[in-house]
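Sanity check

After download, print the first record. It should look like this:
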Amino acid sequence: MNAKVLLCADEESARHPELIGLREENLLEQPWLAVRTTAREARDLAAKSASIEEIWVVSCSDVEPINLAAAVKRDNPRRRVSMLCSQPSGSLHSRTKAAGIDETMTHQVLVEHYAARKRQVRALASGSCDSERETGPCAVPHTGSVSPKPVVSPGEKRATLITVVSGSGGAGKSAVSAVAAATLASAGIKTLLLDCDFQFGDMRELLGAKRAYGVDEVLSGAVPLSDLPRDEQGLCLIAAPRRLEQSETIVHELPALLDSAMAHFDAIVANTGANWGEQHAVLLERSSRALFLVDQRASSLRACKHAVELCARCGIAASPFLFVANRCSKRSLFSSIDVSCAMQGAHAAELKDGGVEVEQALGTGLAYDLVSSRNAFAQSVRELMGEVVGEAAGSLASSEESEAPSRGLFSFRRARREGVLP
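Expected structure tokens:
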């Protein structure tokens, strides 16, 4: 037995590695990997084999993964033990820390560890010093037209990924995502709006693009990224799947979709749902900027702090985080200064309260009318995007200066109703 890594997985996952993100991989044929499905088998092998360097606990057929991970760590404290944690929680974090487990992994981290170990073994076998070269099947899950590359290489184009999150629902993520994407596209920036609220995403309705392709259709190869339809301003939309039951499968495909989209667009705006899951970790790990929205409720601020603490426990770097106080006005409870103080001095921005016009415009699919209006919310989103996109801020400023006088928020709808427009 010359295996360097012991993988503990239940029988179903061992037979179908795609369930744990390792699509098109035959785990039993990897000479560096030993797979065991029960706790006794795993502990026996770990005790007998001195060649095992680390243990990955993904699942187990007969005991809870946390119990198995704790047991193998207790058997040999010097051996590195990592455990898959699909849904991190404070309780689970405390238990893994108390057990001395070295690392908790998301599915994406597991995929990256697997691919790195596979490259290392191939490089040693070929005598090559280039450990990054990989000629066989890639460990990153993919389907259809999505590129299987796990990362974008330094020489390739890499889009600015802006992820919009909040600690709780109702903070305004959908409105900010839709208006931010429309603002960037209106400035001539090649933009993709990706709706990662896989269960209740409504970007189709907010942008008036009910026929937009869903993420499930893009992943199936129904349409390549390069052929995605664009609206009049050049914005591409990948909407949430129409079938809610497909959301769990899509999460495992998300890394490959993001890595491919990075090479096709200048900016990607990703909307997220209220319930935190693995897709949040995948997005935040890749984000150029992550906008943490806080609305005018004390519970929203507390939830934001909890979400940031969760990110810290999962090992997600906080450097891209930008805290945003939403719906600000003279009478609002929180300002950017309040949010900054609550987040220990971190930089915070403000989005003005746009009033009922925001809901009315987005509710009727008139995001671009809102962007071109004098609405305070739309103008503050423009300013925020200028801060976020950096070098492209000049195009946002020039776009704003060259705009014709606002034609009124609902002029387009009125013109269509009166027969002026088709």
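If your output differs, re-run the checksum step. Summary of this record's structure: The two ends are 73 Å apart (CA to CA).
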